[in-house]
Amino acid sequence: MAQAIIAAITDVARSKFADMVKTGNSFKVDSFVTGSGGHDPENPTVALTPDPTIVELPNITSDKRSIPETNIVFISPFCVQYQIVLDLLDSVGPLSNIGLYATDGLGETFLFAVANFPLVVKTDAERRSIFVQVNY
Fold first, then answer.
1. 44, 74, 107, 113: which has the fewest Cβ within 10 Å?
2. Is 123 exposed, middle or buried (0-12, 13-18, 19+ CB in 10 A)?
3. pLDDT, averaged in runs of 10, over the chain (136 residues)
């Protein structure tokens, strides 16, 4: 099953962009985690608006995993799409958000963007692809 969502860039990521313009220090989006904190608890069919001030994804349900270079596509000069592949035993259970993490030139990892979506329950019998778009 495939799903497409749009992520919100965090305030930390925005400050890293400003630092990059000022100093030339770059960063790379290279990993992700999944979580179950992106839906409205009162109505799980509704996704919450991502909070750009967070520094860690709430209700993490997976370990941090790498995003292969082949799963990153430039849709336009202002939009990048990251394909997140969840294999059979990955992130089994409730899912409603994904956090994209980046690493800067000093090796510091930070939450770059958050994508929330209505609650889904992933079973160990399904493989799921989630296409996360980030607009700059």
1. 107
2. exposed
3. 90 95 93 97 97 95 94 96 94 96 95 97 93 95
